Automatic annotation (TrEMBL), chains A, B:
The keyword Transcription regulation applies. Pfam families: TetR_C_24, TetR_N. Residues 16-76 form the HTH tetR-type domain. Residues 39-58 bind DNA. This is Transcriptional regulator, TetR family. Keywords: DNA-binding, Transcription, Transcription regulation. Gene3D superfamilies: Homeodomain-like, Tetracycline Repressor, domain 2. GO terms for molecular function: DNA-binding transcription factor activity; transcription cis-regulatory region binding. Residues 1-21 are annotated as: Disordered. PANTHER family: HTH-TYPE TRANSCRIPTIONAL REGULATOR BETI (PTHR30055:SF234), HTH-TYPE TRANSCRIPTIONAL REGULATOR RUTR (PTHR30055). InterPro entries: Homeodomain-like_sf, HTH-type_TetR-like_transc_reg, HTH_TetR, KstR2_TetR_C, Tet_transcr_reg_TetR-rel_C_sf.
Amino acid sequence: MTSSAQAEARRPRRPSGGPESLLDKAVLEFNARGYDATSMEDLSRAAGITKSSFYHHFAGKEALLRAALERALDGLFSALDDPPGVEPAVGPSERLRRIVTRQVRVLMDDLPYVTLLLRVRGNTPTERWALQRRKAYDAEIAALVRAAVDAGEIRAGVDPALAARLLSGLVNSVSEWYRPGRRGTASLPEDVARAIFAGVLPAADPA
Amino acid sequence: MTSSAQAEARRPRRPSGGPESLLDKAVLEFNARGYDATSMEDLSRAAGITKSSFYHHFAGKEALLRAALERALDGLFSALDDPPGVEPAVGPSERLRRIVTRQVRVLMDDLPYVTLLLRVRGNTPTERWALQRRKAYDAEIAALVRAAVDAGEIRAGVDPALAARLLSGLVNSVSEWYRPGRRGTASLPEDVARAIFAGVLPAADPA
DNA sequence: GTCTATAATCAGATAGAC
DNA sequence: GTCTATCTGATTATAGAC
């Protein structure tokens, strides 16, 4: 008997597996059908308990959303800073490259949570709160892009505001198709950073 | 009195302005709140008629969605071909550049329709039909990217499947922020094409 | 082509037993 | 911590008068 099977047997009265597991399952459902199209009935069925039992763990549908978006935003913001012990980047361009790399990594690690965040429309106070925090994050990226252009590290003629939007768009679009374990995505964070600075389809060097 | 004001006066019994106008207004509502979160009540209020009157023009909510997605998909596919009278592109790379440029233009012209399409999740038969057609479109793009790589026009080492996904992601991300009349977007189609082939943040030429 | 009124269903949420 | 039963309100859609 494996230890996980033992653990299973030790808690037969808790098929839901605790709030974290419930949140994980709920986020998957939200992403599969969209937040608004997902009912509490759907969530409880996916968790293997009844609707009423679900309300014992979360105050309601929006509380679930809030918890999920909080996790996604915390992950995103963590990509802004170098891990402790790493020497600081020499210029804004290099700092951006590191942030893009880390942001893609966060996106891959917390895919369902970040995906949910990126689809928020602003229908409820919780959603508007998330949109505001996202906006603050995007502003940090835009400021760095401006700094890189001002420092002369980027080719003349590039509009910083436009470049910042395209950068975020390219990075975030990974959530539309990436799935864990997908072939050819081992170096995805670096590949996306390369696409940002050299192009998605860079011209071949003349032979 | 302007001619549009005359037309207004000539049809006082038709405040809805016909099915096309209804569809326009409905798509705006869908995008503002999300398709599922938008009720028929919301739609009829935005159109200035009652819910019942709305049902006189469209069979239901899904019929509206179908009509809107059809228009978006027709626009997208129209970007695949050169307009009549234009000489064909010399290679796959140049053909891709033209398609990207035209696709961004379609996105800008039919922004609400394309936005709606890009947010479809697959909850209903209509949505799954739209997803299938989108998939077919993406496959055409992916085939062209492969051809460009095989022709040696793209720098060695670029994975065609990944590049195709990033290309579509970058192009489609424009729908997340573009609004008609926005400053600095006059040359957006060309700017996006340049970002694809040279990078969002191309390094400055060494002085 | 528009309206009022209403049917039928389903949603989020709660009460209270075990 | 889970359940059955239920409340309340919103939603899609229709009937039928004008």
